[in-house]
Each structure stands twice: as C-alpha cells, then as structure tokens.
Amino acid sequence: MEEFFNKIKESFTDATLEFETITIKVDSTEWIETHQNLRDQFNLKFFSWLSAIDWDNEVSVGEAPKESVSPSFEIITCLSDLANTNLIIVSTSIVKSDPKIKSLVEIYAGANWHEREAFEMFGINFENHPNLEKLYLPDGYEGNPMLKSFELISREVKPWPGEVDVEGMPEESESDKSEDG
Amino acid sequence: MVNALDPQNINSFSEASVSVEIETEDMTLNIGPQHPSTHGVLRLVAKVDGEKVHDVKPVLGYMHRGYEKLAEVRTYPQITTLVNRIDWVAGFSNEIPFITGAERLMEIEVPERAKHIRLILTEMARISSHFVFNGAYALEVGALTPIFYAMEDRERVLDLIESVTGGRFHPNFNRIGGVKPAAGAGPTTKKDIQDLPAGFYRDTKVAMQKVIEAADQFQNLIGGNEVFKKRTKNVGVLTAETAEAFGVSGPILRASGVKSDLRTQTDYLPYDQFEYDIPVGENGDCYDRWDVRVKEMVESAKIVLQAIDSMPSGPLQAKVPKVIKVPKGRTYVRAENPKGEMGYYIVSDGGLGPYRLKVRTASFSNISILPNMLEGALLPDLIAIMGSLDFVLGDVDR
User: For residue A151, what is the domain's CATH number?
Assistant: First the structure.
C-alpha cells in the first residue's frame, strides 16, 4: 500500500493515506480526466462504487457536523486494481445551487446504476448519462431522501429511544466494571 | 372466392410460389417481481423477438429499505442489527466489514480469539450461502432433487451458527472490539458464558466433513448431469474486462479467470494463517460460475477445520468505552463476501453514529451487468444466466 501511495503522490500531491484508505481530492472540472488517467496509467480498472455526501450544517435527522462546513455535495468514487490490491477513493466537491457533474459511464460502464442512485437520492445531475432516471424510488416520488434536510417521517411521528439503548448494553457495563477494578 | 377443393383449380395453386415474409412484432415480457427465480423481488422487463431477448431493463426498488438513511440516525452498535439484513442468506458476513471499519477508526486491537470466531462464522455463512445457490440454481435449470439435499446440509451449518450466536440468519453477534459472549454456553460463571458452546469443535468437524462430502455429491449429481451441462456450458459468457468495468466481483469474477480474492489480499480477518486454494474458472460461463462456488465450499470447510485446530485462547472482547463514539475520520473496509466485494465507507464526525455510511454491496454491481449479458440471449437461457449470478435482492436494494 505504501508503494502505491508514493506512486499516487507523484501525480496527486495532496493525496492522503488515513486509516488504510488512500484518498485524493480533485476539482470537479478534472473529474473525467482524473478517472481516465487512473484507469489507464494506474491500472485501476475495477469500478467499485460511486456515491455522494450531503454536507450541511442544518440537518433534520441525525447529528449536525461539529465544525461548521460550507454546504456542498461531495461526490466519491472508489476504484481498485484487483491484481495488486490497490484501492483509491476519489473525491470532488460541487455546489448545491447547481448540482451537476459529468457522467463516468463512458469510462466505467458500471457507473451507470450508481449515478442513477445518486441522482434520485441527492438530486445530482450527471451530464451525458445515457439513461438518467430513478432507480429505486417509484415514479412520481418527490424529494431526494438522502439529503440531510429530508425528514424521516417515522422519526417525526415517534422519537427513537436511541439514548436508552446506548446506556443499557449489558456487555458494555461489564467491560466498564473490569476497567474500574 | 375460389374453391380450393375444386379439381380444376388445384393445378394453378400448386404452381403458385408462396413467399410470405412474417412480420413479427417485438413482444414485451415482464418477469417478476414475484417470480420464484428472482431471489426476492427483482423485476425484469424484456423485449422478446421470437426466442431472442433484447433491451432488458431490470426494475429495482421493491426491497429498498433505505439503510444508508437509517444508519444516519442510529448509533454504531445499533447499525449491526441493520446490516445483518442486507444479504440475508449470509447475514453474518455483512457485519464484519462494518465492525472492522468502526474498530479501525477507534484504533481498537481485536483479540485473536474473537478474530478466529469471526472467521469461522464468516466461512460458515459462505458455505450456507453456496448451499442455497446450489439447490436454487439446479432448480432453476430444471433439476428438482438437489435443493432437498442442499437445504438439509445447510441446516447442519445453520445449527452451528445458531449454537454460537443464537440466530440462524441474523446473528447480530459482532460487537465493536470483539464478539458477543456466545449463547448456549454453560450459565454458571461469567467465564463460561464468554465462550463457544460445549461440543462446538466436535460438531463442527463432523459438519465440515459433511460439507466436503456434499460438494463432492453435487459435482456428481449436478455437474455430472448432461442436461445441466448443456444448459450452462458456453451460456452467458462474461469476459474479465467487462466484469471489471461493471464492478462485478466474487465468484462471478473468478469464474471469468481473474484470481482475485479479498481474503488473501486484505487483512480484515487472519486468513493468511491458513492454507487454501482460490478456485478460478476458464470460460466465464454459467457452468464455471457454478463450479467455482462448489469448489469454494470445500475450501471454506478446509479453512474452518484449520481454524478450529489453531484456535487461540484469550478474551473475546477488547476494552471499549461504555458509550461508543467513533473519532472523526473516514475509512473504507471491504471484505470478500459469498457474493463478492462488500464494503462500508464510514464517514465519522466524532458522534454516536456515522455522518454518512455508504454500503457497497456485491449483488448490486453484479446484476448491473444483466442487460449487457442478456442482450441477444435466448429466452430459455434468461433464467439460467440470471440464476448463475447468485444475487439476493436485499443485497441489491439495501
């Protein structure tokens, strides 16, 4: 992994290796070129997945980010080289007001369904996608469920007793006792 | 109106040459979502031109439960309950990459004994998943008998999983830092509770021997069947290049000749301590995909036998804080599940639950190749090709 990381670092100077995961950040305008380059020059031919993260300070469910973030969509792909076990996470950021990015279907055929999923779940438009329509959600469904602003209706109706569960786990209290003495 | 039976007319009729071009319209064929061979609720909309299939459109979402959204409102220990249900045929193996990811971010060193128990149960889940495939696939191509053998043999393995975890399909057995104290052990002291049930090693040895025998039996019963060979050989050929571009992984990829197995290539569990082969196919057809899985069952049984012989002693749990908070960071952990690469991309912001959890499942990418593979295939081959991909809809829709 170190060897591959050093090789990546020659081309992508801001590459990071944290928790055994190599991540590179690229500009959204270089999205296509980067993937072309990674596939052809670094032999990362296996398309693992594509997804997105909604960064927002105001959330309707879950926990808000602890430090303030600038609202944006982060788009992430994961590519790997099966013969040498190399794996890389490619990340880019796009603005929320006009969420669009070029489709990777031309380079990796497998990106097709992943982009459709990101389209319906986050509302991101993938330009030049051959068939950008809903994948899971029924026709006529409104909204993008994976947005942090999207309300989880069941949670609105009945709050989840999450805190109670956290306190009451039996094996946790056991390990706690052993720590005390 | 000319009377054809009139002998005067017969001459002229026989001299007339008949050349009629039959114009056939494309027929739209809907398969599923409640078709028994769709392993859940997959729906395919195919255009059929005579016997040839083209423009196949899989329609997903009948099993979509929104786990990625639900994970955002749950704490880390609660998420293991959810991920069990992604690929329900091999529930145990779904937990491993998630738990490993959380442990990696928390920088917890898991005790060796817990790792071995995880490894044994993961391999048992793989065996039980492949048993289901063997029975179901033979059924799909027209052989009724194998599923009865497969289900009976699988039950032996599920009994073992149940004796340790308390659950047949959804063990929910992994905890951050180790495994749950096993069910079914002696109730007397705390030490006894925290171990495998009595007689587990003995029963496992018997069951694994049976698995090896069963795989041999399948080679004769299914693989030796002329009809099965004719239905599967050179049907649905998948090249390695196409498979990689679509992210197809696991036994399907290995059947296409790529020797890639994350068990040896990554270190999520101590597979490097054991000796086993990675079965690889040659042609990438349906027969190879079946063959690779049967051989994998034998290898998994060998791994389990070696693992129980070299089981280290020690605790089952590392010391973890009472309330689990995962420090800020990101990691991607992937594992070789029965159906292929399964991975979790955990984005933690230092809270009780992940800020974002991306679940990469094997079946999703594996069946995204269906339109490509079924283009121009014969209608009777459709089920044979679909079945050979061995998907589960919970693993597709999440």
Answer: 3.30.460.80
Count how many pairs of residues, chain A against chain B, have C-beta atoms within 8 Å. 151
Q: Which domain holds residue A119?
A: 2-180
Residue of A nearest to B372 (CA): A109
Contacts (Cβ under 8 Å, ≥6 apart) of B74: A160, A162, B82, B353
Question: Domains in chain B and their CATH numbers?
Answer: 74-389 (1.10.645.10)
Q: How many domains does chain A have?
A: 1
pLDDT tens, position by position, B342-376? 999 999 888 888 888 999 999 899 988 988 888 88
Set of chain A residues whose Cβ sits within 8 Å of the Cβ of B350? 66
The question of ipTM being above 0.90 is answered as no
**Residues facing B31 on adjacent strands:** B44
Give the mutation candidate from A135, A146, A155, A177 for the B interface (greatest B CB count, under 10 A).
A135
CA-to-CA dists, residue B148 to B35, B37, B88, B138, angstroms: 20, 16, 20, 11
Bin B284: left if φ > 0, else alpha if -120 < ψ < 50, else beta: left
Contacts of B55 in chain A (CB under 8 A): none
pTM, whole model, 2 decimals?
0.84
**CB-based contacts of A22: which residues, under 8 Å, 6+ apart?**
A1, A4, A5, A8, A15, A16, A87, A88, A89
Q: pLDDT digits over A89-131, tens only? A: 999 999 888 898 999 898 888 899 999 999 999 989 998 889 8
Q: Three-state SS for A79? A: strand
Find chain B residues with C-beta within 8 A of A113's C-beta. Answer: 364-365, 368
